[in-house]
Amino acid sequence: MNYGNNDNKTACEANLVFHPSTSDTVQHAINGANDPVAPTYYAPLTQDRGAMHIQALGNTEFRTDEVWKPGMNNNLLILSESRNVIAQGIDYTAGYTDDVASGLLTFWAEDRTPDQALVSGCDNAGLADRNGHRGNLYLNDVTKITRPAGGGTETNLVAANNVRTARVEYAGQNADTLNVISRKGDLYLGYAAGSKIYTPTEAYVGNSKTGTDNAFIYQGTGGTAEVHLQAGFDDSRSQMTRTEGMEGGNVYFARPAIDMPNGGRRNARVAIPYSSEYICNGGNLHQRAGQSMLRYEHSGIIGGLGRCGVESAAGWAAYAGRLENPGTLNDLNTMARGACTPLAGV
Cα(97)–Cα(86) distance, rounded to whole angstroms? Predict the structure, then answer.
């Protein structure tokens, strides 16, 4: 399933949008025999093992909560070539059948400018503009991924620039791999707090999620498993810039909860090549203040939002608040936390 705008070649308008409906035909097609309606809806067709690609030149957007249980463990790829992938509630369950139907699940948003395509209406400011309009994956409500027992498979949440999630619940019983990757920008895991979603009547309302709700939960109970949370490796150089800016990448967590019980070998990799948000140029670290302090607090791998589990108004305005449909700072800062006494003068 592919959509590109061949009339005026404007990528910003070449969007594939799935609206709420009494009959979710995409869900039926994905689920096949596992869907309570699909066997009747598509009779007498029989689902085989082929993959489904849903791709747009512009946005690929789901304005309804989706329950996906591919009938033959079919591979499923949700793609945007030049803009964003946007979803709200996703409940996905699939495992491994064979090398054709391996249960692969991929969400991937790129920011390419195809030949002759116009992107002036939604363009980014630069190759490493992580606040840009294109190349972002936005998961604006609960994303639940379940991998039942069987052969190992792979889940990919990938964007050229930013990946932002609400609550993520991942449970795998096999040698599964979960990749959450920002190629040139940042990961904002749990930052879709108060971000807007669509109701069944297409009212556009806040998702009612807070920083407390938006945990990133990974449970790997198989003998071997891998989780990779990475940002900025495609925007790194052999020698880091000496000018503060957006080179490299950052990982921001609201509430990480990675559980790998005893009895297996599992690896969790949370990595960036470096972050140029803050560069220490020989000054005394205790003299950080103002913009220097702001950059320091958003440079690297940051868990729990910020000092005392709170994102500042200035930090919100400069980082997460600049993304599309950002939600609210108040919802993000509604977070269960212990007592904290900030350092004097910072």
Answer: 28
